[in-house]
Specification:
Elements: H1 2-29, H2 37-56, H3 66-91
Helix pairs in contact: 1-2, 1-3, 2-3
Length: about 100
């Protein structure tokens, strides 16, 4: 179970960093971000998460707000996974958890 939590934490961490980078490029590059190769790469990394969030959110939510909502939902899930990992680690009396 600890291995599964480590993998889930890693996937969430990568997605969160990609969304953060995408937001940073949104601010820095402005309207020219669509032509930026790195921005497109970050969009590919975050696309599975933003597609799921688009399906879950109501139609009133604008498409430009979906990545922000995705970031905060993933941040909450990341915190839950981290606390569960800590709980499992402490319950197993692992030396590195103390």
């Amino acid at each position: 179970m600890l291995t599964f939590l480590n993998i889930a934490q890693l996937v969430l961490y990568i997605a969160l960093l990609a969304l953060l980078g995408q937001g940073l490029l949104y601010v820095l590059a402005g309207a020219r971000r669509e032509g930026n190769l790195f921005y497109k790469l970050l969009q590919v990394v975050t696309k599975p998460f933003t597609l799921v969030m688009r399906k879950v959110t109501p139609a009133q939510v604008a498409d430009r707000h979906v990545p922000v909502a995705t970031f905060f939902v993933l941040l909450v899930v990341y915190a839950i996974v981290t606390f569960e990992k800590i709980d499992r680690c402490v319950a197993a009396n692992m030396v590195g958890c103390r």
